[in-house]
Design a protein that fits this description.
By secondary structure, this protein is mostly helical. The chain is 49% helix and 8% strand. It has five helices and two strands, in the order ββααααα. Strands 1-2 form a two-stranded antiparallel ribbon. A hairpin with a 2-residue loop joins β1 and β2.
Length: 104
């Protein structure tokens, strides 16, 4: 796995730039990931990131966009507004968890 330095952290990432070890993540790293993809983080963004991290830890896999929407009560349309383009992939990237299954 490639090793890179992001926000002063030396971390291993896969070929798409996702962390290979979610335990390497912290908020500073998440903020830098968000900056790299052009997402300005708000409290609402951080709540979603924390949900993804908690759900990943509990379920053993990254939640899908549908699961994020149903569990948080946020409409999918709002998730697309917060993380434009590919919200499931972008949320997972910022949260330091693997890309959801079935996500291209």
């Amino acid at each position: 796995m490639p090793t890179t330095t992001i926000a002063g952290h030396q971390v291993e990432v896969n070929d798409e730039g996702f962390l290979t070890n979610p335990d390497d993540w912290d908020e500073q790293l998440g903020a830098e990931f968000a900056r790299l993809i052009g997402v300005a983080m708000s409290d609402e963004h951080w709540k979603l990131v924390q949900f993804l991290r908690d759900d990943y830890k509990a379920q053993g896999e990254t939640p899908t966009l549908r699961r994020v929407s149903t569990q948080t009560g946020l409409p999918v349309k709002q998730l697309f507004t917060m993380f434009p383009g590919k919200p499931a992939k972008k949320m997972s990237y910022v949260a330091g968890v693997p890309k959801p299954k079935g996500c291209v």
